[in-house]
């Protein structure tokens, strides 16, 4: 009897090993073997489980553990070459994490195109920048990015940003109960960008309705791509359609105002698109206008709310840096003309020298490096392409792993440390600092984002302090990096210390 039990156990183990080994080979057969001789030029790696690939390890690391363990597991197993093959988001992929390789992929529009997961593509919209030809992208990018780039455009938004940030801080400080800083900050950043893109919108119910729709769409980005009632993706698609309707109504209103002479020139991106032509000299369709605005709005508020949240969090955890940053802001007030209220550019062409000197500028860069608001940039190889002697086969995705670059001790000593001073004498190395991407897709909103964060910090540092409700609350890194309680905190206005700004 005992002998039988031992035999059973051996059979069970053998069976398990067989099934396990068989399953682990399926993706290898599906994607690697079929490349024939070319398979020997692929980078090393692990194609993971059928269908899922390495998604389970990815979710485990980002949702419940240390996000850097995901890339370091490849480095430990296969070496530090910074290119690894795997399956992610349903596609055979090459993960890249060396600065120079990331830079090469991002700069190469001939061999690589954007290819974000299906949920993202559908929710941003087929006619947004995602699916455009290179020529159309260049045309629309030049047309639209001017609205949020350069000192002339940005200086137009300073007063409004100041009003929104001062108003929000004041409102939070008056609240009896702690607020969810992340949720509240999203309201503030949404209020900043809505008029830039859609025109003068003062109606609170419109702002709150559209913000809720965007919130629903954002949740869909990281959901399963199942468009059936009851699933998040279905709700997100419904929200996207409703939003499309709203944007198209605004387009119609502006167009009819133009016909009736009731039109006053507006500076919004929507007006600009209504009046402009596409790359072939044709009027731009309502679908395209809607998708482009949808993309800008989606890209432009959650990211900035997260960046602000992390700045406040790092200052909260680093009282010395907080104190130095505060001193710096006080100096800015002292240098200001006595008659001046509010903030303006000190010089005309660089955002970084108007409001803040080194400390805030470097603290923001350090936050962007350390936090990695987007975990990866997605490209697809249009042709078989060889980089560093490794093949990236046509149709495979390339995942540019931002954490892999920014958290590698070869690029940043003691990368875990939040250390703004590391930027004091920083020598630029191509591809080593890419929180806003690189190449033709470099984030057009980077300066606006930094401007918003800097203005918020100016008023926060001078007049407020924050007390977290759950200072030990764990950090979630998926879908976005933030404390799992959304940074529950009480904002307090400083008493006699506060400055008249
Ligand atoms: C801290 C805040 C932000 C971060 C970290 C960030 C990051 C990025 C990154 C990494 C890309 C490149 C994506 C790629 O190459 O695949 C990108 C693109 C983009 N961003 Fe941002 N962004 C931020 C804020 C903003 C803001 C405020 C706006 C607009 C108001 C904006 C609008 C866009 C748009 C439209 C694109 C697509 C550009 C193109 O395809 O040509 N972003 N962003």
Written description of the protein model:
- The protein has 501 residues and is of the alpha+beta class.
- It folds into 2 domains: 87 residues, no CATH class; 365 residues, Orthogonal Bundle (Cytochrome p450), CATH 1.10.630.10.
- The protein contains 17 helices and 12 strands.
- Strands 1-2-8-5-3 form a 5-stranded mixed sheet.
- Strand 6 and strand 7 form a beta hairpin.
- Helix 8 runs antiparallel to helix 13 and helix 10 packs across helix 12.
- The longest helix has 31 residues.
- It is globular, with a radius of gyration of 25 Å.
- The relative contact order is 0.14.
- About 1% of the residues have low confidence.
- The site of protoporphyrin IX containing FE (HEM) has 24 residues, from helix 12, helix 13 and helix 17.
- Protoporphyrin IX containing FE binds next to helix 12, helix 13 and helix 17.
Task: Give the arrangement of secondary structure elements.
Layout: H1 2-32, H2 55-64, H3 68-78, E1 83-88, E2 91-96, H4 99-107, E3 112-114, H5 118-124, H6 134-145, H7 150-174, E4 179-180, H8 181-198, H9 204-221, H10 232-259, H11 269-275, H12 286-300, H13 302-317, H14 319-335, H15 358-371, E5 376-381, E6 385-387, E7 390-392, E8 397-401, H16 402-406, H17 446-463, E9 464-468, E10 475-476, E11 482-483, E12 488-493
Protoporphyrin IX containing FE (HEM) binds next to α12, α13 and α17.
Compact summary:
The chain is α+β, with helices and mostly antiparallel strands and 501 residues long.
Total domains = 2
Helix content: 40-55%
Q: Which strand order does the major sheet show?
A: 1-2-8-5-3
Structural class: alpha+beta
Amount of beta strand: 5-15%
What is the third-level CATH name, the topology of the largest domain? Cytochrome p450
The kinds of small molecule bound in this structure are: protoporphyrin IX containing FE
Largest beta-sheet characterization = 5 strands, mixed
Count of separate DSSP helical elements: 17
Low-confidence stretches: 347-353
The N- and C-terminal alpha carbons lie at a distance of 86 Å
């Amino acid at each position: 009897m005992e002998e039988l039990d031992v035999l059973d156990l051996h059979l069970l183990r053998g069976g398990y090993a067989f099934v396990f080994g068989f399953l682990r080979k399926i993706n290898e057969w599906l994607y690697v073997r079929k490349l024939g001789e070319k398979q020997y030029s692929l980078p090393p790696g692990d194609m993971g489980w059928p269908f899922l690939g390495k998604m389970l390890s990815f979710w485990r690391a980002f949702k419940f553990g240390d996000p850097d363990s995901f890339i370091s597991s490849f480095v430990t197993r296969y070496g530090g070459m910074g290119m690894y093959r795997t399956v992610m988001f349903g596609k055979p992929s090459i993960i890249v994490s060396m600065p120079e390789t990331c830079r090469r992929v991002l700069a190469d529009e001939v061999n690589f195109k954007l290819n974000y997961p299906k949920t993202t593509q559908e929710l941003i919209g087929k006619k947004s920048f995602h699916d455009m030809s290179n020529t159309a992208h260049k045309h629309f990018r030049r047309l639209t990015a001017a609205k949020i780039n350069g000192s002339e455009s940005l200086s137009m938004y300073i007063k409004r940003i100041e009003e929104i940030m001062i108003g929000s801080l004041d409102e939070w400080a008056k609240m009896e109960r702690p607020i969810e800083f992340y949720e509240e900050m999203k309201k503030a950043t949404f209020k900043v960008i809505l008029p830039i893109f859609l025109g003068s919108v003062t109606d609170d119910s419109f702002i709150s309705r559209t913000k809720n729709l965007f919130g629903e769409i954002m949740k869909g980005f990281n959901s399963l791509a199942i468009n059936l009632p009851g699933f998040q993706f279905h709700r997100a698609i419904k929200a996207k359609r409703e939003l499309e309707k709203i944007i198209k109504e605004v387009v119609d209103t502006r167009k009819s105002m133009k016909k009736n002479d009731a039109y006053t020139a507006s500076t919004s991106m929507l007006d600009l698109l209504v009046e402009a032509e596409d790359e072939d000299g044709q009027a731009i369709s309502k679908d395209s206008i809607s998708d482009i605005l949808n993309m800008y709005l989606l890209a432009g508020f959650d990211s900035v709310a997260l960046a602000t949240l992390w700045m406040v969090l790092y200052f909260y955890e680093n009282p010395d840096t907080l104190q130095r940053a505060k001193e710096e802001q006080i100096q800015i007030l002292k240098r200001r003309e006595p008659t001046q209220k509010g903030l303006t550019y000190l010089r005309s062409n660089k955002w970084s020298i108007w409001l803040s000197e080194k400390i805030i500028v470097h603290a923001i860069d350090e936050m962007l490096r350390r936090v990695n608001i987007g975990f990866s940039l997605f490209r697809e190889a249009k042709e078989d392409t060889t980089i560093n002697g490794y093949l990236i086969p046509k149709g495979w995705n390339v995942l540019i792993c931002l954490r892999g670059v920014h958290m590698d001790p070869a690029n940043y000593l003691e990368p875990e440390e939040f250390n703004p001073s590391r930027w004091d004498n920083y020598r630029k190395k191509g591809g080593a600092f890419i929180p806003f991407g690189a190449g033709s897709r470099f984030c057009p909103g980077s300066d606006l984002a930094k401007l918003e964060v800097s203005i918020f910090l100016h008023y926060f540092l001078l007049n407020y302090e924050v007390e977290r409700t759950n200072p030990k609350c764990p950090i979630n890194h998926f879908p976005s990096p933030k404390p799992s309680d959304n940074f529950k905190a009480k904002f307090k206005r400083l008493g006699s210390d506060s400055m008249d700004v």
